[in-house]
Amino acid sequence: MAPAPLARTVDALLELAVVPSFSRLGPAIRGPLAGWTEPPDGALAGRRVVVTGATSGIGAAIARATAALGAEVVLVGRSTERGAEVRRSIESADGTATFRRCDLSELDQVQDLADELAAGPPIHALVHDAGALLDRRRTSSTGVEVTWATMVVAPHLLDRRLGEHVDRAIWMSSGGMYLQALDLDDWAWERRPWDGTRAYAQAKRAQVDLVAEAAERGEHPVAVAMHPGWAATPGVTDSLPGFARAMGPLLRTAEQGADTATWLASLPHEELRPGALYLDRRARGTVRWPGTATSPADRARLRALVDDQTRRG
């Protein structure tokens, strides 16, 4: 482990350079310098962890990692077949997992999920990993654009409905949000030509803003955001094949992308920074590009918009 000033300096240089920070070089350099250690065996024993988007990629990796620490994991996803595969992989390693099918773009299903979870034991960590990067604009049955419904409205509804039943909510954002500002006048892409990548990134920006707003209001559960860096997941390779080919071996594995979420899930409650955005086990700034910051007025406007949308189901 390097001296703290050296570790901080190297970390800051990596963050400034972006590519080494977000690629697999980030954890490869930061981990040894900062002296990362694995959470102790049984760190989550007897605790309940809920992971949305848990049937593949980073979500599945988070589910496996938290189960290995002793958590009882609730896997949430749309595919019963893939959910069963992840559940079996956890059980084969002597972990405990159940699967709950839910399409997070459909708010009636999200409300049913919230009711079911609230009727069970307390939830230690609620990990919002589900995402949607679409090649065409689609709406849910309640008329909400699907990317926004899945990544913004659904997790917000779960946090608000479950409240103090959850110790911490971990929102999986993306480094792509650094390049986007919110467009609250056309959040649903009704007037602009559809751009799935930008819609995804703007929804990720909204996630970070909602987490900060919840912390400002002192709401339960304690909410933090994180981004996993650039990882080789089905969402990236299928939706952004050109990017995946260009980055090639520099992409992180799903397990590397899941590391900070697992670490946040195992961190003592008093060590969490409510409202913060994390990458590689450290809180980061939320703005890197001029004109992308969300003003306090627009953050409040966003919150009012999403509060209204949670009542549509």
Description:
There is one protein chain. The protein is α/β, with parallel strands linked by helices and 313 residues long. Helix content is 46%, strand content 13%. The protein has twelve helices and eight strands. The chain has helices spanning 4-17, 19-22, 25-34, 57-68, 80-92, 107-118, 146-162, 196-217, 234-239, 241-247, 254-266, 296-310; strands spanning 48-52, 72-77, 96-101, 123-128, 166-172, 222-226, 277-279, 282-284. The protein has an eight-stranded mixed β-sheet, with helices on both faces. The radius of gyration is 18 Å and the shape is globular. The chain starts with a helix and ends with a helix. The model has no long low-confidence stretch (mean pLDDT 94).
How are the elements arranged and paired?
Elements: H1 4-17, H2 19-22, H3 25-34, E1 48-52, H4 57-68, E2 72-77, H5 80-92, E3 96-101, H6 107-118, E4 123-128, H7 146-162, E5 166-172, H8 196-217, E6 222-226, H9 234-239, H10 241-247, H11 254-266, E7 277-279, E8 282-284, H12 296-310
Summarize the structure.
The protein has 313 residues and is α/β, with parallel strands linked by helices. The chain has helices at residues 4-17, 19-22, 25-34, 57-68, 80-92, 107-118, 146-162, 196-217, 234-239, 241-247, 254-266, 296-310, and strands spanning 48-52, 72-77, 96-101, 123-128, 166-172, 222-226, 277-279, 282-284.
| Shape label | globular
Order of helices and strands: HHHEHEHEHEHEHEHHHEEH
DSSP strand tally: 8
Strand content: 5-15%
List keywords for this structure.
313 residues, alpha/beta, eight-stranded mixed sheet, 46% helix
